[in-house]
Amino acid sequence: MMLKGVGISKEFLRESRGTNRFFAVQETDIALESGQMTVLMGRSGSGKSTLLNMLAGLMQPSSGHILLGDTDLYALSDKALSRLRCEQIGVIPQGQTVLHSLNVVQNVCLPYTLYGEDAHEADARALLERLGIGALCDVKPAELSGGELRRVAIARAMLRKPAVLLADEPTADLDDENTEAVLGDLKQAAQDGAAVLVVTHETGAERFADRLLRMNAGALAEVSPAGDSGVSDGL
Amino acid sequence: MKQSLVLRDLAGRPVRTAVLTVLTALLALTVLGGTVIVTSLRRGLGALESRLGADIMVVPYEATTQKKFENIVLQGATGYFYMDSARAEKVAQCAGIGQISPQYFLASASSGCCSIPVQIIGFDPETDFTITPWIRRSYGGSLQKNDIVVGNDLNAFVGDTLKFYGVECRVAAKLDRTGTYFDTAVFTSAETIRSLIASSQALGMNDFADADPSKSVSCLLINAAEGCVPEEIVNDINLHVKRVKAIQTKEMISGIADGLAGVSAVIGILIAAVWVLGMVILLLVFTMSVNERKKEFAVLRIAGASRGMLAGLVMKQALVTGLLGGIGGVLLALAAVLPFHTAIESRLGLPFLLPAAGTVVLFALAAILLSVLTGAAAAAVSALRISRIDTALILRGEN
Lengths: 235, 399
Hints:
The structure holds 2 protein chains of 2 kinds. Chain A has one domain: P-loop containing nucleotide triphosphate hydrolases (Rossmann fold), CATH 3.40.50.300. Chain A contains 7 helices and 10 strands. In chain A, the strands form 2 sheets. In chain A, strands 6-7-8-3-9-10 form a 6-stranded mixed beta sheet, sandwiched between helices. A 4-stranded antiparallel beta sheet of chain A has the order 2-1-4-5. In chain A, helix 6 packs parallel to helix 7. Chain B has 15 helices and 11 strands. The interface between A and B is medium-sized, with 36 and 29 residues.
C-alpha cells in the first residue's frame, strides 16, 4: 500500500521572528512505496520531522492531503485515524519512547493491547529476539541502554506488520554498531514489504536507502545516487 | 486488556497511586467520620429530649443555686437533693398541670456493677410518664420491691443482684441504649429508692440525714394540660410555691443544643476545609502527574490511542484510586468512630447516639461515592488537557 502526500505544506505562526508566518514544510508531493526504504536527510530544523508527523497522521497539514491507499487520513475522525495508525502505520519517534510502568514485551505489545486484542506476545518475543534483545523481554525499561530502548520502539512499531513504517532519527545518540543494526532492521522491514521512511541526519544512512530525499528549509528534493541535491522535486 | 493497562500503570507508579489513594481516603474519612459524629449528636439530643419527656421540671430552690440539678439531670453527675413532699403537693395544685410525677435521686456509694458511683433514680409507677414508657420497651412486668432496671452501659445483666447501701437489689431489666447519661443510671420504684435512702442515712452516708424518705421527693416532672402554656405554669409555680424552682426542660437542653450546634458547625467547617484542600491537592497531583507523563501519553498516541482513550485512561485511574481511597477512608472512619463512641461522647460532653447500622452503611456508600466523584472531577481537568495534547510537539520536546 502506498502512502502519499499530495500538495502538503505546514505553516506555523511564530511571533518571535520578524514575520509571523513561516513554512516548516513548503508545498510538496511525496510518495512512499511498499518494499522501499526512503531515507530523508537534512539539517536540524529543515522540516523533516514535521513532514513525518504529517504523514503519520499526528499533525494536520496546512494544505493538501495524506492518502493511505484511497483513504484521506485527515478526513477521518480522531478515533478512526488512531485505529488506522495503530493497524497500518508504525511510528518510531525521536528519543526514548516507552511506558516505564510496563516491561519490554508489554511495551512492544501496546498496539494490540490498547484495543483489547490478544497481545501476540509470542510474536513480540520472536521480534525482540530478531532485534537482538530477546533476553530483555521481561525487564523494565529503566534497565535498558539507549540502543536497546530504540529497538523496543522499533519492535513496537513493527509488531503489527504495518503497511507503512515511519522512523524519526532512529539512530540519534547510538554508537556505530547500534546505528548499523537499527538501520539494518528497518531495511529488513522494507524488504518484508513495508513502505519505510527514515528521517535522519546520519550520513551513513544513505547506504541503506532505496531512495534518498533531502530537505532544506522546508523544501523537499530527491537526491541522485551520486549525492547531488535538488535534482527533482515533486516526489 | 485496556483495563489492565490502567491497573498496570497504577501498579507501576506506586508512590503516585498511594498519594492519590491516601488523599481520597482522607476525604472519605472526614466526610463519614464527621457525618456520623454530627448525626450521633443530633440523635443523642433527641434521645435526651424524649427521655426528659416533660415540659417542666420542679426542683428544690437550693439545688438550682449550685447548678446541681442540671449536672445530675443533663450531665450524668451523681448526686441528690430532696424537698418536703408538702411543697410537691402545693405545686400539684397549680393551674394548667396535665400530668405530674415525682422522682427521687440517690448516688450509690459503690456497687459490683461499676468502678464508680452510679446515679439511682426512683419514680412512681402510678404517675410516671417519662421513664415507664421507656422501661416497657425492655421490661413488660411491674417492678417489685428491690427490683431495679439498669442502663445499657452498666456491667449488670437481668437476674444479677447488686447491693446498694447493704440492700440487695435484683436486676429486672436492662434498658436500650440512649446515648445519654441515663445509660449509666439505675432506675427503681419509689418504694425501693425510699428504702435505699433510709439505708444510706442509717449508714451515715447521706448528706440529708434529717430528710424523711417517705415525705421527700427530689423533683417533680410536669406536662402541661392540653391548651395550657408551660411558660405560664412555670411562672405560676415560681410565684406561688416557696423554695422551689420550676424550669422549662426546653430551656434546660438549650445549652446542649447550643453546644451541639457549635460542634456541628466546627465539624462542617472541617469537612469543607478538608474537601477543598483535598480537591486542590488532587487537582495538583493529577496535573503534575499528567505533565510528567506527557511523553508517555504521546507514546500511546503514536501506538494508536485516540484522544478519547487517553482521557479515559486518566479518568479510569482516578476512578480506581477514588474507589480504593473511598473504601479505605470509610473503613478508617468506621474503625475510628464506632469502637470509640463512648470516648468521643465523654470528650465532647454531649449526648451521643450512633445511627442505626443501615444508616451508617448509607452514609459510608455516600462517602465512597463522593470520594470517587471528587477524584473524577479533579482528574477531568487533566483528562481534558491530555486529550488535547499535540503529540508531535511533545515528541520533539517542545511541549
